[in-house]
Design a protein that fits this description.
By secondary structure, the protein is of the alpha/beta class. Helix content is about 35%, strand content about 15%. It has a single domain, classed as 3-Layer(aba) Sandwich (Rossmann fold), CATH 3.40.50. The protein has nine helices and nine strands. The longest helix is centred in the first third of the chain and has 14 residues.
Length: about 250
């Protein structure tokens, strides 16, 4: 799963060296970042012109906090590739004027020409970025109060539940939907309900990932466990095998 997604990103960077990538944190994209770092090291994959925008950041955590998403990105991708630090954008976890800083974040995505590929994981409650159930499907970058389920899911990274931040700054669903190509990743049976509802359920703010059904170009990379509850799983596999027939095997 990770290698296939990394290959897609590498193809994008070769096609357009100054691509704008939307990046996610969490456990899911770790394998992709490892593979991209390897491609840089061993195959010279060039990040020199790449611009990045992360989906979200915990509010209240300093960049050097080991659980901040800034720290995560530095450790897992950025310091392993030749990206220019001035091209890296991650919402600030300590900003004072939250509204102004969220508007600036949106504006800088626009100034970069929009996001070419947006990577997404999915929460067990169907969230994308930190757009918890009930988030407006037109939402923009803003401060979001985290749901209890997300707080307890993320507690594994902190010493105690009390240390998990209660807020995050996150791109909105509307922001994400403006990306040109969205790549959704999910692995493990614990994501299978969210995946089914996102891809085959009704479009609803209760499962913010279901908004992806409104986008023209979404690629989902799922392992078998995450895909096991999909009703049309056999059809998707068939479609995948038919790509070769129409010469789209690299999509
Ligand atoms: C992370 C993010 C979240 C995660 C989701 C899944 O930047 O925006 O939406 O993608 O919570 O997390 P993992 O991958 O840890 O299961």
């Amino acid at each position: 799963m990770s290698n296939a997604a990394a290959k897609l990103i590498a193809a994008q960077l070769r096609r357009k060296p100054d691509s704008v990538l939307g990046l996610a944190t969490g456990s899911t994209p770790l394998g992709i970042y490892r593979e991209l770092a390897r491609m840089h090291r061993e195959e010279g994959l060039d990040f020199g012109g790449v611009r990045t925008f992360n989906l979200d950041e915990y509010y209240g955590l300093a960049p050097e906090h080991p659980q901040s998403y800034r720290y995560f990105m530095d450790e897992n991708l950025l310091r392993h590739v030749n990206i220019d630090p001035k091209n890296v954008h991650i919402p600030g976890g300590l900003v004072k004027d939250i509204e102004a800083s969220c508007s600036e974040y949106e504006a800088s995505i626009g100034q970069a020409g929009g996001i070419d590929i947006q990577l997404l994981g999915i929460g067990r409650d169907g969230h994308i970025a930190f757009n918890e159930p009930g988030s407006s499907l037109g939402s923009r970058t803003r401060l979001k109060t985290l749901a209890q389920e997300t707080i307890s899911d993320n507690a594994r990274f902190f010493r105690s539940l009390d240390e998990v931040p209660r807020f995050a700054i996150t791109m909105g669903v509307g922001t994400i939907l403006e990306s040109r190509h969205i790549v959704l990743l999910a692995s493990g049976v614990e994501k299978s309900d969210a995946v089914r509802q996102a891809l085959e359920g009704p479009v609803t703010s209760e499962i913010t990932a279901s908004a992806l059904q409104l986008h023209s170009t979404v690629t989902a990379f799922l392992d078998d466990a995450a895909a096991e509850k999909l009703k049309r799983r056999d059809y998707y596999k068939y479609v995948e095998s038919m790509r070769q027939v129409v010469g789209q095997e690299d999509l």
